[in-house]
């Protein structure tokens, strides 16, 4: 069983907390050895000045004044001497320290701690005799006394929410101001105030915290108690957008809602969380609080329930309420039918869906349906007179082939409930196609091997394609919108004539594998010329002549163009002995050598 915990301030030391545990096994109690948890240092508490009190009020010692265990955490509090920053050096006032210990088995560790003190540089208020409680939401409330030289002794409180930063606590509030001076000394001259402070959680709702604190009452030198209930912040409830739908004649409708500060103490408490839905036709309503920020309503709707928006009201066990206006829309149930479809990559396919009222299968026209593929929204379409909406979807090559889930959603309107339907889109791979370009070059030339690359009637981009020449791989290239290209240097030993170029693609999730071979690479010899020298005077008729070789032998039948100093001088057809062209030297040509 869980151990009982004993905690105390460390004797003779103004820091740390000591603890031990008591456990039972088979009816025999076992007391553990004493352990110590390090906590921040503090100074000894200082007696508190109070207006009209000749002797400062006795604040007692630094002993722990109250401890509670909740949710695996132990909370406790004590008086501490502090300075204007809450530290222990040169302490000149008394504050209240709160501590949270994390419990695991019979071992405790410090989770967080904080101090409540007055930072005023002059005439600070002293705070003393604190007590605390932790409610079902994890909120902490601490009550304590307080006074200063210009103020009668009164009652104060502060607190923190479960989600507040570690070590933080809220602003101090006055519970009850002191009414008169107080002086009541004991036999040792102490102006006894007493450690009469109690803070506890209301057992009816596990949410409200009651604090009982002392204050100096008006007839002088007497104290009285002030009892105050402290509520947690009021809950809030968010209206969903769009409103949640509830179909008429439906059972087990489930509506999730969000908010803040939602709490249900659970069975055994007389005050529980409650919820209601406005209007008629709602029955078997159950509200389940999932946590402080969410709840789920489940209920039935009668066939005769009035159509339209309904408000939700929730009430925390402490009686505080919150509303979500127009949170639920009671409407006709609807059905969406989605037939299966099939299409290929890069092609358009029509995805259809039909929306009808479930009762009587009445088609709903003019309604917007949202189409999704594998959970991602594609777009919307509007239903026609038959209740059918069609979405034309062009299948991109980023979507893999195979079966994909189609979801079609209707958000509902004032009279018709939201609905969704599902179907399957089967995507086929696109068949790839190549078209090779012809290329001509000579030994040693760097040429570009190029092919168009398409699938499904569209250029394929970003895929790796392999090139081969005469069956030998020569490299890979990545395709773009203009096709796929690869630089290739014609080897010196390639035979003259046409050669095969092959492009091939291994295939992927969107495209089939494929290849194409065509004799598009033409290796030709380079033409070489050997020009004869010619001499003549201005106006003389001479013959321009060159030998024409290819692959080391004379080449006949080629149209050879002649030019002198860059100006055309005519053409001639080559023979086995070369090519010759009659040329008259212009009278304006300057003497000397010319090209």
Q: What fraction, in percent, of the residue positions are helical?
A: under 10%
The number of distinct β-strands equals 49
Query: How would you sum up the major sheet?
Result: 5 strands, mixed
Strand order of the largest sheet: 27-34-33-30-31
* Uncertain runs: none
Mean pLDDT: 96
Compute the CA-based radius of gyration. Answer: 47 Å
First and last CA, distance: 113 Å
Work out the strand percent.
over 45%
The chain-level structural class is mainly beta
How would the global form be characterised? elongated
Number of helices: 0
What is the secondary structure topology, with strand pairs?
Layout: E1 4-9, E2 17-25, E3 28-31, E4 35-37, E5 57-58, E6 66-70, E7 73-82, E8 93-104, E9 107-116, E10 126-134, E11 140-148, E12 151-160, E13 173-176, E14 191-192, E15 198-201, E16 209-216, E17 223-230, E18 236-237, E19 244-247, E20 250-260, E21 274-277, E22 282-291, E23 294-301, E24 308-315, E25 321-331, E26 334-337, E27 341-344, E28 348-357, E29 362-363, E30 368-373, E31 376-382, E32 388-394, E33 402-410, E34 419-428, E35 432-436, E36 439-441, E37 446-455, E38 458-459, E39 464-469, E40 472-478, E41 484-489, E42 497-505, E43 514-523, E44 527-531, E45 541-550, E46 553-554, E47 559-564, E48 567-573, E49 579-584
Parallel strand pairs: 5-14, 19-25, 27-34, 36-43
Antiparallel strand pairs: 1-2, 2-3, 2-4, 6-7, 7-8, 8-9, 10-11, 11-12, 12-13, 15-16, 16-17, 18-20, 20-23, 21-24, 22-23, 24-25, 26-28, 28-29, 28-32, 30-31, 30-33, 33-34, 35-37, 37-38, 37-41, 39-40, 39-42, 42-43, 44-45, 45-46, 45-49, 47-48
